[in-house]
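This section describes the prediction task in plain terms. A model, or a person checking by hand, is given the sequence of a single protein chain and must write out its three-dimensional structure as a string of tokens. No templates, partner chains or ligands are provided. The sample shown here is typical of the held-out split.
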Amino acid sequence: MATEGWHYQLNGQVKGPYSEDQFRALCEARSVHAGTMIWRPGMADWQPLGQIDSPFRALLGQPQVMPGYTPPMVRPGVGAAAQGPGQDVTNASLWSLYWSALTQRYVAFSGRASRKEYWSYLLFFYLFLIGLLIVAFLIDIGIDKNLRSGPVVTIIVGVLYFLGHMLPGLALMVRRLHDLGMSGWFVLLGLIPYIGGIVILVFALIPGQVQDNEHGPAPR
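The expected answer:
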């Protein structure tokens, strides 16, 4: 599905892509207005046209977006096409995917996550964990080289680090399952002693569905 250009939502359906001239004509015809939800490549999510910096400001029709007003989003489950283009992961850097999972999608349990997004997150998760634990251990040695009280700083840093990454990691695994066309509740299989971790690893390695599914468009 082509995604270059401007897209907008109308009655739960995605229209587009349109070139800038075509979209300008839609504004002039009042087919779109300030409250219309729009998306184009480079935007993280759908936004009201009146709330973004665009070349169509002078052409926007009513209704105007009032302060504090949040236009209704397309409901999950009305069809993958109505949820807009999938997240562009092909051209995204490993770092940007990790940072997005840790910030913009911190507790995003809806949508899908590709293998690249999942493993990018794990890569930086463990790199930072190892680095922080080494620094924390050196601090412990500096405080008491015999560690008579134990590696207190290392333990505190490790616990805080895991707590900070627990929710985004869980949300990412749920989205990875969604990418396979599975329910996010299968993440609970990871709680099974001995084999749970292996099951989750297998799920993380399986390629996602190339077509749109009930959880959203396929990551591009």
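For orientation: Residues 94-205 form one domain.
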